[in-house]
User: Fold SPP1 family holin from Frisingicoccus caecimuris.
Amino acid sequence: MNKISVGTISRTFVLFVALLNQFLTITGKNPLPFSEDEIYNGISMLLTAAASLWAWWKNNSFTKAAIAGDAYKEGYKYTNRGGIS
Assistant:
């Protein structure tokens, strides 16, 4: 069975919201009951949270020992995948 990607679902959702917004605008209804500042702050908060989670998830090595450990790990993974013996 084919799995639907997260990107496809998110693009479809954004398209649905845009179409709904357009329909409500055409019919004279207030499409989004939010001010521009509230929308800006909400998007800014979501981007900050996403960047924070991504930075937290990644392996961030700052010390010389950590950087050397990362290099050792990558070399170990390379040799165990059929690389240099």
Remarks:
- Helices lie at 6-26, 36-57, 64-80.
- The two ends are 39 Å apart (CA to CA).
- The longest helix spans residues 36-57.
